[in-house]
Each structure stands twice: as C-alpha cells, then as structure tokens.
Amino acid sequence: MSSALENAIAASTHGDSDQAIALLRQAIQEQPESGLPHFLLGAEYASLGRMDLAEQGFANAVLLSPGLVVARYQLGLLQFSSGRASAALLTWQPLLGLEDESPLPHWIRGFAALAGDSFDTARVCFEAGLVRNADHPPMSADIRKVLAQMDALSPGAPQSPQQAVPLAAPTLLAPQPDEDESSHVLLSNYLQQGPAH
C-alpha cells in the first residue's frame, strides 16, 4: 500500500476528511490503474453526504477494478437508495455469482424483492445474508436499518417520525461515536480484501 493511501486511511479514521481527500487524490495520481483509491475517495465523499461524488468514485473503482466487490456493492446500494433500483440491480448482477457463503448475493436478492414489494422474501434474503456476514459489521448494520424500516412500514406498525429509518445513506466511512475502529468500513473492507488492482 502506498504511503498516500496509508496516510489517507489514518486521516479518515481520525475524522480529517479534507486531508483524506487530498491524499486519496494523490494516491489516484500515483496509482492510476488501481480502483482502490477511487473506492476510498467515494467512501469518504459518502461519509460527507456528497453522494454525486461518492457515486463517481465507486463507479471509477468498479471500472478499474471489477473484482473489488465491496465497491460494486456500495455503488449499487447508493443507486438503490437514491431511487434507481434498476441501475442498482444491473450494477449488482455480477455479484449474484458469488458463492453462497457470501452475504452479498443474499442481500442483493433482498433488495430485488424489496423493489418488487415482496417484503417477506426480502426479509428472508436479508436475514440469510446477515447470518453469513462475519467480515463487515457496518454492512450488516445497514441491512438491519433496512429491516427496521420495513418493520416500521408494515401494516399495523405505529407510524411515528422517530421510527422511520432512512434507506438513503449507507454507513460507509465515519465510525459513529459508539463504534470502534474495527467497525470502520473503510478499514474493515480494505483489511479484509487487501490491495485490489
């Protein structure tokens, strides 16, 4: 891993987004063939709510490193959560061929069922993915939020603003105050996969 990437991850972990973005741009210049710096840049922008730039980063990562499955999944999640289910399903299509032990195909089938208003099927798929996910706790947290939103919207459930959990912003980068570094998506995803070129 380049020093620019290492320093970008450290800056992101410490909440210094400006420094992380500058270092990730430097890493992109140093490693123009690698999708990883683009993915991390997209994740940093997503943590700032800059979804247009996040999508650009994720898309560039997928183009440069098609095997970077977390980048492809996050790109699809961003597309789905912004109301573009068809685009998300196309983005995710290659992930459906992953082994059954991976949570991603299960979650993707869950989102496909959700897009078709098949809530019972969606729940089964989301839960099947949760059982299989030991490597990426923040991704499981996102799916639990989706399940909570489904519960809040189910017939007979009390509808109050406090119960609504937005589907829109996936937990990508910034650890929440009660999370430790092991739940930091940027770090956990990179450390699990290693460098992707």
List its salient traits.
mainly alpha; 197 residues; single chain
Describe the structure.
This protein is mostly helical. Helix content is 63%, strand content 0%. The chain is built from ten helices and no strands. Helix 4 (51-64) runs antiparallel to helix 5 (69-81). The model is unreliable at 159-197 (pLDDT under 50).
Helices, by number, come to: 10
According to DSSP, the number of beta strands is 0
Structural class assignment: mainly alpha
Coarse shape: elongated
Beta-strand portion reads under 5%
Distance between the termini: 11 Å
Which consecutive residue ranges, at least 5 long each, have pLDDT under 50? Answer: 159-197
Report the radius of gyration as a whole number of Å. 17 Å
The secondary-structure element order is HHHHHHHHHH
Mean pLDDT equals 83
Query: What does the largest sheet look like?
Result: none
* Helical fraction: 55-70%
In short:
The chain contains ten helices and no strands.
Present the secondary structure layout:
Blueprint lengths: L2 H11 L3 H14 L5 H12 L3 H14 L4 H13 L3 H8 L10 H13 L3 H14 L4 H17 L31 H9 L4
Helix pairs in contact: 1-2, 2-3, 3-4, 4-5, 5-6, 7-8, 8-9
